[in-house]
Amino acid sequence: MDSGYEYRPREVVKDVTQEFRLGEGRISAYLSVTLGVLSVLSVLAYLYPSYLTTTDLRKAYDGEQLQHVLKYGMYASLLFGMLTFVLNRAAYKKLGLIGVGLTLVAFALGGYSVPVGDVEPRELSLGVDWLVLAFLGSTLIFMTLEKLFPKYSDQLILRPEWSVDLFYFCFNHLAISAILIFANYQASHFDWALSPAVQDAVRATPVLLQVVLIVLCADFVLYWEHRLYHEVQLLWPIHAVHHSVENIDWLAGSRGHFVQVFSERALVMVPLYLLGADEAALNIYVVFAALQAVLIHCNVAIPFGPIKYLLVTPQFHHWHHSSEKPALDTNYGAHTVLFDRLFGTYHMPKDLWPAFYGTTTPLPRSVIGQLLYPVTANRQRWARKRRKRSQTD
Ligand SMILES: [Zn+2]
Ligand SMILES: [Zn+2]
């Protein structure tokens, strides 16, 4: 910790033009459009399950049961759409109309009564089911937490660049099967390290112990992967995309260059593959990792008590996103704080939180600019190097 550094509280200015207030029609307009989009996507997933659903995820839900949820969602979209007309604000009536229109399209496509049958599994598909379920689950759990325990209550749901991060959220979920195919393929290169004796020993331990083992091994790999992204100049611009977000909340964690998203999954798959733990332990780990990855970005000030000295919490990971000098290149852990403690990169100044987030060099604000940033940033760096060399020659 930098003892000479003067920490300041973060100032969040509430943008009242983006606020959701009861009775204005904005809440119902956004709900109507969101549910309308989700309805169309869901109906399409029911119509073309082998192209638009995820093989692994299909085992975890009952398609017929979820059609009831779809039914309520569709009627709710119509209801909220009509409510915008009752509340009668021109700007939101237009959105309400779009929401109703989308839901009518969902009805026209077959609505909630598309027959659910056997699915011919395809290796590569779009994870529309994963996107819809993760979006519903995340908004329900994490937005509720952010409303109940906000760290910054003036930071709004529609904070700057929310739509950029929503794009990343959609991309990451739709690409799930491509990510898993890539990750499994990369892990298979480690066949030479497989040891039946190790796997038998792992499986002989109780499931909870197996989970702890997976968490520690995955965290070790993720710690070093993360640290390399920060410390190797060539790699930093890829990871800088994740750091370019300046208002951190549940959605902000989705921002990440696709190279990072793919490589991270591939690397973490290696220890999971080699350990050969029971499926129950793997499933617990996957759920834990998915929830923790979102939670640590949330705008929440939940008192975690002694857990914060063990596991990565929002305060810990928010410091990782800080652009303040003492916090740069610290807190790499994904699951636990252990390896940051061990390798000297732990930064938790008591109960303080960062005042500033983002990168010290600003990144492009558009998705395309961020996609190309690893190329543009490295080209600029090499050009600077060449100039320096020619000046010294
Ligand atoms: Zn980082
Ligand atoms: Zn992060």
TrEMBL record:
Q: Is this entry keyworded Transmembrane helix? A: yes
Q: Name one GO cellular component term.
A: endomembrane system
Q: Where are the transmembrane segments?
A: 27-49, 69-88, 95-114, 126-145, 166-187, 207-224
Is-annotated flag, keyword Transmembrane helix? yes
Which Pfam families would you find in this protein's record?
FA_hydroxylase
Annotated Fatty acid hydroxylase domain ranges read 211-345
UniProtKB keywords: Lipid metabolism, Membrane, Oxidoreductase, Transmembrane, Transmembrane helix
Q: What is this protein called?
A: Sterol desaturase/sphingolipid hydroxylase, fatty acid hydroxylase superfamily
Q: What is the taxonomic lineage of the source species?
A: Bacteria, Pseudomonadati, Pseudomonadota, Gammaproteobacteria, Oceanospirillales
